[in-house]
Amino acid sequence: MKLRSIKYFQSVYEQGSITGAARQCFVSQPSITAAISQLEQELNIELFVRHAGGVRPTSAADKLYPLAREMSDNEQSILHLFSDGPTPIPLRLGLMRSLGAQRMSELLTELTKRIDNLELTLVEPDEPCDARVVLSQSASSCEDFIPIWEDSYQLAIPNGWPLAGKPLVSIEDLDGIPFINRTPCDALDRLKQAMAVEGVQFQPRANIRTIEYTWPMVSAGVGAALLPDWQEIKHNDGFVLRPIANEKLMKRIGLAYNASRIDEPLIASVISVCRSTARQT
After folding, report:
1. Nearest-angstrom CA–CA distance, 212 and 101
2. How confident is the model at residue 97 (pLDDT cuts 50, 70, 90)?
3. What is d(CA 157, CA 238) in angstroms, rounded to the nearest whole number?
4. Where are the beta strands (DSSP E) in 159-275?
5. 20, 111, 210, 270 — which has fewest CB within 10 A?
6. Does this model's pTM top 0.85?
7. Could you say which DSSP state residue 201 is in?
8. What is the pLDDT at residue 20?
9. All domains in the chain, ordered by first residue
10. Are the C-beta atoms of 120 and 112 separated by less than 8 Å?
11. Is 240 exposed, middle or buried (0-12, 13-18, 19+ CB in 10 A)?
12. What is the DSSP string of 110-147?
């Protein structure tokens, strides 16, 4: 009998679902399911009854759970007994792409300052994690969302282009100019829709995925691009940022976390840091 299987069983019992256990243990759902199945075969019992909302423990699971907790507690005691330093506090943080290196570094630095012995692991936002930094519309129905940043998207125009001399750009000004097309970007998608309504042609010159590659191409004169007003972008000397008339292209980015975990000390600390960052923005 593997200790890992016992730990997975304990997590499923406490979370009431395979999904919740996978998130808590930072593994895939099939790994949890396989471990439970193996444990059931070894003990020749049924531990959980599956239903639409998760799983329900059987009477056998109720008997096993106190022993599982005792084994888990003993494991932690052994690790603590022979540990040379403080026990690390693991935090898996999901990060969407194109967040802005400067502000994200500042947030991560603040997390490590405010949470003692933090062991931070950065993952994709769709992987199992404790919390996620994502767009507001990406938060699921079971997650609470705390706004941290609000990005305003403007047209980045290479210096020397006639259009760079205009303080305000109209949709008609965009007809046929070379664009650096970045996907996915819902702000750019909204601009394309507005251009199509006005019969204005969107002319892609280059197709890329990341913001970090976009503004050097604008500086080089490859094309114009729709970019957020990050500090590192606003202070670039190779192009100018201009608002587009009658178009409010905004994105809200913040912390999404499972609402049921709000009372956990780790999650509460992360929330506090994010709220503090939002006030300073």
Report:
1. 9
2. confident
3. 9
4. 178-182, 203-208, 225-228, 239-242, 250-258
5. 210
6. no
7. P
8. 83
9. 3-81 (1.10.10.10), 88-281 (3.40.190.290)
10. yes
11. buried
12. HHHHHSTTEEEEEE-TTSS-SEEEEEGGG--TTEEEEE
AA identity, residue 57? P
Residue 23 CA: distances (Å) to CA of 127, 208, 263: 8, 32, 17
Write out pLDDT tens, residues 8-66: 999 899 888 898 888 877 778 888 999 999 999 999 999 999 888 789 999 999 999 99
DSSP letter string over 19-50? HHHHHHHTS-HHHHHHHHHHHHHHHTS--EEE
Mean of the per-residue pLDDT values for the chain?
88
Element containing residue 90 per DSSP (H, E) = strand 89-95
CA distance 21 to 8: 7
Retrieve residue 108's tokens.
């991560």
Q: Token pair 């590659």 is at which residue?
A: 213
Separation between Cα atoms, residue 232 and residue 216, nearest integer Å: 12
Q: Return the exposure string of 11-42: e unless at least 16 CB atoms fall within 10 Å of the residue's CB, then b.
A: bbbebebbbbbbbbbebeeebbbebbeebbee
C-alpha–C-alpha distance, residues 46 and 39, integer Å: 9
76-90, 102-116, 142-156, 191-205: range with lowest mean pLDDT: 76-90
Host H or E run for residue 91:
strand 89-95
